[in-house]
Structures are given as C-alpha cells and as structure tokens.
C-alpha cells in the first residue's frame, strides 16, 4: 500500500513537471532544458514571498504563482523570441545556457543551503493516514490533487478555450496559424508562461513538502523522460509516461538498488527511444521535422 | 577542403592546392614561428600558466572530438562528459586493479571509447537532431552511473587515485614534461582531424550534415559514416579522459557532471561550428573563463567576501556568455576572426563584388 502511495506521489510530481515540457514542445517545437531551473526558481519565489507576506500563506502563494507566470512570459519575450526561426538545436542550447545562468543566480541570491519555505509560511505538514494503511504527507496529497486539477484544467483549456485552440493551431502549423491572424508571439509567450507556472507549482509543493536546495534541478531533469516516454507533444502521454517512470523508479529503489534512482528514468528513456522514439501517444511525423 | 581563399584572390589550379594545409607564404611563416614558440613556452611561464596550458591542451583534444561529431558530421551529442569519464575510468580501473602501465591503459581507453561510440551512435541511425541529443544525454547518465557504482562497490567512494605514468622507466610528473606530452597528444589529435576532414571521410561527414537524403543519393553510406564519426570522436574523447585522469592523478564521477558536457558544447559554439580553429579557440576560452572571472572578482573591493560565491558567479557568467554567443554571434570566435580577415583581404572595399570572386 505504501509502495502504491509512493508511486502515485512520485508520478504526480513527474506529471506536473512534464506537462511544462509538453506545453512548450507542442506549441513551439522547442525542448526547454531549463525547465528544472525554472521550477526551482518558482520554489525560491515562494520563499521570497513567504518572507514578505509571512502571515498570509494564500497571498504569498498567489503572489509566487503570479510571479512565476511573469517569469515564463519574460523568458520568452526577452530570450526565446529571438530564437524563433533559428535552428531548433540553437534554441535548445539557449535554454541550457539559461538554465546555467539561473542556477548561478539562484545560488547568488538565496545561497546553496537547505531552506524550508513551509516554516516561513507557518504551515504544518502532518502525515495523513489513508484508508488502506498507507501514509502520505499533507503537501504530497495536495500535490496529487494539484496535478489532477492542472491536467483537467489544461485539457479543458486546450480543447475548448479560445487561446487553447490557438495554441494547438500554432503547434500544428505555425504558418497557417499566423495567416489566420493568430498572434504567434502571444501564443508562444502564453505557452512559456503556463509551462513555467505549472513547473513552479510543482517546485513550490516539493519545497513545501521536503525543503528546498539546489539539487531540485535533478528532479526537473528526471521528469523529462516522462514527457518523452509519453510522447513530447501529448498531454495524456505525459501522464502515462510519468506513471511509468514513477513506478519504475520506486520499484527499482525498493527491490534492486537505491543508487539506481537517478538513472532509471534515463534507462526507460533509452529503451523508449530505441523502440518507439516518438513516444507512446506522440505524433510520428514530428521526428522528420527536426 | 574548400575554404575561403586567404590570398587576395583565388589562385588554386589543382586539387593538391585545394587540400593543402597552408596556402600563402605568410601563413607558412607564421605557422613555423608559432610551432617554434610552443616549446619555448614552458621555460618562460610560471607553474600556474603551465597548468593552464596543459588544461587547454586536454580541453582541445575533447573539443576536437566533439567538433568532428557535431561541427562536421552534424550529430549532436550532449553526452561528451560520459565519454570522457569512460576513458578516465578505464585508465583508472586498469591501473588500480591490474597495475597496468601507461601504454596499455591508453589504447584500452581508446578501445572502450570506440565501443561506447558504437552504443552512443546506434540511436543516431534512427533519431535526428533533438531526439539524438536526448539519447546521448540519457547515455551520459548511464555511463556516469556505472562509474559511480564502481567507486562505491569497490570502496573508492571519494575517487580513484592514479599514479603518474611511467614510460620506459621514466616517471612523468614534472609539469614541463607533462606540457610536452599533452602538446604532442593535442597536435596528433589536430593532425588526425585535419587529415580525416580533407579526405573522403570528412567530405562524407559534411555531406551528411548538409542533407542526409542527398548524401545517401550520392552513394555515401550514411549509417556507416555516422557510426564512424561517433566511434572516432568517442575514442578521441576517451583518450582525452584517460590523459586527464593521469594528469590530475585522480578520477571521480563528480568531475564528469552534465555541466562538463555543456562546457564542451559551449566550446564548439563559442569557438565556431565547423572549424578546428574554432575548437581550439573555444577550448582556450572556456578553460580560461573561470580564471578570468576569478581574477576580475578579486579586483573588486572587499574581494575575500566573494570567495564563497565564486562558483555561482562562474555559473551565471558562463550562462550569460553562452546566451550572448548564441544570440549575437552564432558563428563564434571564428566568425569574428573570419570577418577581420575578409576586412583586410577586401580593403579598401567593404564588400565582395556582387558576381563573387573571379574563378
């Protein structure tokens, strides 16, 4: 039972992070390798707002969420906008460089020590006992709920929302979309904003649950195989991929070797790339467009 | 090897001239002076600069390897540190377990690199661009994990120490001797690359980078040449890794993080894609960069206060430089150098004539 809970929590973490990769890739065909750093930035933003709005956790979290949305939009406007139309690889390397820059800046501003935004917010984190006998911490439960809500929201948004339809159109064929009067830059900026927002949510909840150090980037990087296993341009795929990666990781830690935890996602990724490079639910012709 | 002419016109009349390494008398003279100055350097420089030079040589070997693969054959790799670590660990493990001498560990490292090159290269037969980069990234983690596993299982949790190499009864430990050893290796790597690139193989790689389908239609064995690029590049990287292990006297997985891969990618970007000169310039730039940052920070008032955050400043500055190059100078340092050359070649004019150079 506890094993199942662990798998679900870890999968929820990966799923929440992976949808950021998927959003950006689906809309602009750019792989955002700075996603882990942006996620961590979200967590640090919460730390910053928590110390300024100490008594009001809701305001602090709301402010952090708003700020992270802003960060994502700014990243697009000031950096990635210049890379649209460049080689895909140059854009990816730009995100790598951005990640390095952010990592350095975050250590400079917030130091490399372990910090606890939960304490700064004054929020307790008691363990809940589930009916089957498993235990789950409050914030981990909150994370699972958030993941479900975020995915439901994104599905509805992309299916029915005005801007969601525009995003899908821009992803399918940017030229036609632009011809039909869709503001591509606005759509891309929105995708970056949303992606950073969901990533930051994951970062904040992980930080609330288990503290915040600069090793959080690794989690962001490990969520990437989840996105790719499911198919880089499929949200439902990301959910399934996260489940597979989460289960593989928890089970191998439990039954094989704890040291494996950092490589298992990548081993699954390699297997997937060999068998079905476009992922479980991804679209196939994407491969030839690279 | 079709390069833009460095003489003020196009005077080549045969293929031998086309692939000649030097074209003008000035080039030959400056090359000879440069080659003569290189052995003089260790007798003029202090120990610190000697160490820097050695690091630059090591980095250049790795950068050449990555340049062959990415800059010429067009196969992106984010797993270069994994290959370096494979070489370093092969040397370290053979030394620790079997007390193998230098002349055994080095070829063994090259061999293990070549083997890994096949593994790294196999996905390239099916994947392109982004997906290939991702697969090499994943393989990097696997290789580094295996190294870490060896360290913990054998009880070398902090790392493997490697004694200075002994060749024919002589122990290489003097920094000046190291300088010459590494210089020879770097020069050999450069020559290998130059000759590969102006031969059939190099032309095939360039064709593959330009357009795979067209290359295939021209009768180039795309799959074989891709694998060959991976194998040669990986074994060169592994040798660089083994030399690194001997030079530092120490192997540990911590030295081969993802950041190292990114540093090598940065070298070929900052230097300039598709140019061996670019690989050297990039290696010099990326190797010296942290020292330059440190020197600059120490000039500030209250310098000691920054010592603790030095690595963070390094990270941030490195990211900024990489972004600046990607945004504003995608051709890298070589692009700047070529622009300068053209400026002087065309002087007093500013542009080439519209019809192009007379042939």
Walk me through the structure.
The complex is a heterodimer of chains A (290) and B (359). In chain A, 74% of the residues lie in helices and 2% in strands. Chain A has one domain: ABC transporter involved in vitamin B12 uptake, BtuC (Orthogonal Bundle). Chain A has helices spanning 2-28, 35-52, 57-78, 88-110, 117-121, 138-160, 162-172, 174-179, 184-210, 216-230, 235-255, 264-275, 286-289, and strands spanning 127-129, 135-137. The relative contact order of chain A is 0.19. In chain A, strand 1 and strand 2 (135-137) form a beta hairpin. Chain A has 290 residues and is mostly helical. Chain B is mainly alpha-helical. Chain B has helices spanning 15-19, 25-44, 47-72, 80-98, 102-121, 129-154, 175-197, 200-210, 212-217, 222-248, 258-271, 276-299, 310-328, 332-346, and strands at residues 160-161, 166-167, 170-171, 250-251. The radius of gyration of chain B is 21 Å and the shape is globular. The chains are: A mainly alpha (290), B mainly alpha (359). The A-B interface holds A 31, 79, 82-83, 86, 88-90, 92-94, 96-105, 107-108, 112, 221, 224-225, 228, 259-260, 262-263, 266-267, 269-270, 273-274, 277, 287-288, 290 and B 76, 123, 126-131, 133-135, 137-139, 141-142, 145, 148-149, 152, 258-259, 262, 265-266, 269, 309, 311-320, 322-323, 326-327, 330.
């Amino acid at each position: 039972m506890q094993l199942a809970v662990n798998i679900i929590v870890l999968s929820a973490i990966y799923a929440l992070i992976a949808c950021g990769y998927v959003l950006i890739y689906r809309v602009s065909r750019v792989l955002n390798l700075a996603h882990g750093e942006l996620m961590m930035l979200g967590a640090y933003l919460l730390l910053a707002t928590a110390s300024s709005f100490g008594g009001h956790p809701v305001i602090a979290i709301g402010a952090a969420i708003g700020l992270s949305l802003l960060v994502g939009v700014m990243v697009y406007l000031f950096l990635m906008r210049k890379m649209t139309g460049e080689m895909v690889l140059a854009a990816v390397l730009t995100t790598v460089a951005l990640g390095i820059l952010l990592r350095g800046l975050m250590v400079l501003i917030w130091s490399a020590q372990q910090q606890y935004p939960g304490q700064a917010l004054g929020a307790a984190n008691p363990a809940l006992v589930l009916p089957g006998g498993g235990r789950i911490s409050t914030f981990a439960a909150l994370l699972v709920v958030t993941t479900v809500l975020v995915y439901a929201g994104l599905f509805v948004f992309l299916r029915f929302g005005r801007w969601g339809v525009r995003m899908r159109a821009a992803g399918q064929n940017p030229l036609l979309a632009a011809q039909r009067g869709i503001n591509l830059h606005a759509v891309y900026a929105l995708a970056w904003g949303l992606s950073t927002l969901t990533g930051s949510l994951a970062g904040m909840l992980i930080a609330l649950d288990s503290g915040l150090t600069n090793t959080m980037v690794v989690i962001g990087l490990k969520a990437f195989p989840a996105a790719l296993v499911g198919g880089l341009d499929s949200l439902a795929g990301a959910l399934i991929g996260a489940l597979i990666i989460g289960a593989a990781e928890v089970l191998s830690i439990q039954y094989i070797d704890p040291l494996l935890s950092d490589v298992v996602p990548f081993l699954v990724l390699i297997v997937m790339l060999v068998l079905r490079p476009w992922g479980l639910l991804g679209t196939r012709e994407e491969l030839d467009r690279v | 090897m079709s390069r833009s002419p460095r003489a003020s016109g196009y005077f080549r009349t045969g293929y031998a001239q086309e692939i000649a390494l030097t074209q003008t008398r000035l080039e030959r003279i400056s090359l000879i002076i440069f080659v003569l100055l290189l052995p003089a350097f260790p007798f003029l420089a202090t120990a610190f600069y000697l160490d820097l030079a050695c690091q630059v040589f090591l980095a250049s070997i790795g950068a050449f390897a990555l340049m062959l693969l990415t800059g010429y054959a067009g196969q992106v790799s984010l797993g270069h540190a994994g290959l370096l670590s494979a070489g370093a660990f092969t040397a370290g493990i053979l030394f620790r377990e079997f007390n193998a001498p230098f002349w055994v560990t080095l070829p063994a490292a090259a061999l293990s690199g070549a083997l890994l090159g096949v593994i790294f290269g196999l996905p390239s037969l099916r994947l392109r661009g982004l997906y290939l980069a991702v697969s090499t990234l994943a393989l990097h983690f696997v290789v580094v994990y295996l190294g870490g596993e060896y360290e913990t299982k054998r009880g070398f949790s902090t790392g493997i120490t490697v004694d200075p190499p002994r060749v024919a009864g002589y122990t290489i430990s003097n920094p000046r001797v190291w300088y010459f050893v590494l210089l020879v290796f770097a020069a050999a790597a450069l020559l290998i690359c130059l000759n590969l690139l102006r031969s059939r193989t190099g032309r095939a790689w360039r064709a593959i980078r330009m357009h795979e389908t067209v290359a295939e239609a021209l009768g180039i064995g795309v799959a074989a040449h891709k694998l060959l690029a991976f194998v040669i590049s990986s074994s060169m990287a592994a040798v660089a890794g083994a030399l690194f292990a001997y030079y530092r006297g120490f192997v540990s997985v911590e030295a081969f993080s993802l950041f190292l891969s990114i540093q090598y990618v940065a070298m070929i970007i900052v230097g300039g894609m598709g140019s061996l000169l670019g690989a050297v310039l990039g290696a010099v730039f990326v190797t010296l960069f942290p020292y330059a940052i440190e020197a600059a920070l120490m000039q500030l008032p209250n310098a000691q206060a920054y010592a603790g955050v030095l690595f963070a400043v390094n990270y941030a500055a490195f990211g900024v430089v990489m972004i600046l190059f990607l945004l504003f100078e995608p051709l890298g340092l070589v692009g700047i150098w070529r622009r300068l050359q053209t400026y002087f070649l065309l002087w007093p004019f500013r542009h080439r004539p519209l019809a192009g150079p007379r042939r």
